[in-house]
Amino acid sequence: MKKKLAKMLSYLKDGEGIALENDTFLIGDLDGSDKLYGFFKIGGEILVKTRGSSGGYPIDEMDKADLDYMFKLSSISKKIEGKKYKIVKAEKV
Length: 93
Known about the structure:
The protein is globular. The longest helix has 10 residues, at 64-73. The protein has three helices and six strands. The chain is 25% helix and 33% strand. The protein is of the alpha+beta class and 93 residues long.
């Protein structure tokens, strides 16, 4: 699913991102102590933006549970694939 997500976000240009806006969701080990806000591309790499990592971290480091939520339990992946989220500057994610 990580490769699929990266491919779905490959249309982003360097310095661009998407904010999940109303689809922001809780992540974290059992306690949901963090929030996933969106994705952005810097230096050719697509990064995940969370409250706990303002500089982002690579999609490859996403938890399986978070990917399962995006692809199986919500419409987030379909919205990404359909380019339904507004493209913004990376720092605005």
